[in-house]
Amino acid sequence: MVKLVSVEEMRAIEAAADAAGVSYAQMMDTAGRAVAERIRRYLEAFGEPHVLVLVGPGNNGGDGLVAGRILSQEYRARVTFFLAAPRDDANFHDVQAAGLAITDDLAALDGLVRRADVIVDALLGTGARLPVRGAVKMALQEVQDALAARRGMVTRSGIVTPGRPDVWAQPQPSPFIVAVDVPSGMDADTGALDPLALHADETITFEAAKLGQVQFPGAAALGALHVATLNLPAKLPVRDRILRTLLDAGTVRALLPPRPADANKGTFGKALIVGGSPHYIGAPGLAALGAYRIGAGLVTVAAPEMVVNALAGHLLEVTWLPLSGAATGLDSALLDQVRAYDAALVGPGIGRAFDVMGLLDGLAGSGREVIPPLVIDADGLNLLAGESDWQRRLPGRTILTPHPGEMARLARVEPEGGRSAIQVVQARRLELAAEKAAQWRCVVLLKGAYSVVAAPDGRITVIPFADAALARAGTGDVLAGIVAGLLAQGLEPFDAAAVGAYIHGYAGMLAAAYTGARASVLAGDVAGNIHAAITGILEAEG
Question: How many helices (H) and strands (E) does the chain have?
């Protein structure tokens, strides 16, 4: 499991590792070798690859020196080091002793960038603070100008205008940019970016992901994020007690419900979905698809009769519970049915007329021990937000799945400093999810890029998917159904929310790849790729 840490926490981890016998020099060597190994895969496409290593004044620059030396000595790359500031350390002397090309001439950067197949960005690491200043700022400006010229996008007037006939630099393939730990010009705690920040194709960070790497705008500058081990001690209390994680495929794989050969549909649980209204007929159907595709043994949709009539011919595997009248939530048949299921989802397309508190109070009156774990989504959340004491009336093992707007309403977030309530939520995603999960004594799945799952006991995990393919009506219904289906199969609420969000994000990415256009992905496409996401997780390395 990948930890998610602040800069100060990472410094404490490194200090503890050094005290435990893994020296800073060893960590730097391991980090540099990890960078070189990742780049080696890319170099195989070139006969005589040119690598430019941008070396800053700190430890990040030391990692770059190690990586460049290994790329030259072991992988036969033609490596040039640009020094943004003087260095006098063992790694620099090793590069000198190897007779490798070193320059500190800013004027040389233009030609070096134009020739490079790979650029290793080791100018600034996690300790950097914005704005960028001094020699590093000048180096970044030169690199940015050279990159823009190489891409054929700079006109004689200096205005970026792709496709104009007065472009003076002929288009050339862009170099592959690899950032060491973080892209230079990014705040590793907040995700803030300097205007000169160098956007990477891949970022290789060490031992743990950094908070700024899962916050925008910095997250958009990472490219693909790879977390490399520093080979630290297996037990390191200062690291092990951190409860924040970045969810990975290996962790999800270990949590997937087993599928024994002698199973029957009862083995995989029964999920009840309460939803649907005249304006949102399809929502409970999409949730049912999500629950079935994730492996639930039986899925029932409780909905107004007109919704059942509209959907029943399209979802042949679903069983149906038609609700009388406008489905106030106090239907005695519904109360009896909920108790018979292993998990229940309330909210997809339910509209604003449903008495969600009446349903919760009716369930509570029957004894908390017979209430299945609940997922409350969509208008179920908006109905909760209209009540003054809804937090105290939630059953145990409840999962709330708000998007930022719903979170703002539930948490009574106010506009602040010229920002809307939703912008305030977005700026405090991790902090707010953790705070409210503890306050409300439930699991909170705050949807978005990147989704955050928080538990009342302080555990928090971030889902490593931020894809515009999921910015489409109905995808949240699919996610809620996936989570309910995992609850029905016996996963604990935090695990069900985390695994469900990971598979949902992965399925969205696969749907985008299949359609070839993120703008064309529909919620049904996401549901249709759940099986491919599960297969990918089962086959993933690590």
Answer: 20, 19
Q: Which of 194, 213, 241 is the last residue of a domain?
A: 241
Considering the domain architecture, whether residues 260 and 208 belong to the same structural domain is answered as no
Same domain, 298 and 334: yes
Spatial CB neighbours of 390, under 8 Å, sequence gap ≥ 6: 357, 384
Tally of structural domains, the chain: 2
The last residue of a domain, from among 194, 212, 241: 241
Instruction: Give the contacts of 457 (CB within 8 A, at least 6 positions apart).
Output: none
- 450 in Cβ contact with 222 (< 8 Å): no
Tokens of 406: 């719903």
Distances (CA, A) of 468 to 142, 273, 453, 465, 505: 32, 27, 20, 10, 10
Q: Angle formed by the axes of helices 7-19 and 24-43, to 10°?
A: 120
Query: What CATH code is carried by the domain that includes residue 331?
Result: 3.40.1190.20
Say if residue 289 is in the same domain as residue 201: no
Inter-CA distances, 234 with 22, 128, 152, 541, Å: 12, 29, 49, 20
The C-alpha angle 498, 500, 505, rounded to 5 degrees, equals 95
| Positions of the chain with pLDDT under 50 | 153-172, 326-327, 329
Tokens of 237: 């209390």
Q: Is 246 inside any structural domain? A: no
Same-domain status, 89 and 213: yes
Name every residue whose Cβ is closer than 8 Å to that of residue 290 and which is 6 or more positions away in sequence: 477, 478, 479, 480, 481, 482, 484, 485, 504, 527, 530
Contact 491, 455 (CB under 8 A): no
pLDDT of residue 173: 58
Distance in angstroms (rounded) separating the CA atoms of residues 256 and 84? 48
**What pLDDT, on a 0 to 100 scale, did the predictor assign at position 331?**
60
Residue 314 lies in a domain: yes
Predicted local distance difference test score (pLDDT) of residue 159: 36
CA–CA distance, 197 with 209 (Å, rounded to integer): 19
Residue 302 contacts residue 272 (beta carbons within 8 Å): yes
User: Do 192 and 212 form a contact (C-beta atoms < 8 A)?
Assistant: yes
Q: Which among 258, 251, 183 is positioned nearest to 221, based on CA atoms? A: 183
Task: Provide the domain limits for residue 97.
Answer: 2-241
Phi, psi angle pair for 115, to nearest 5°: -90, -20
Looking up residue 51, the CATH number of its domain turns out to be 3.40.50.10260
Which pLDDT value is given to residue 154? 39
pTM of the model: 0.90
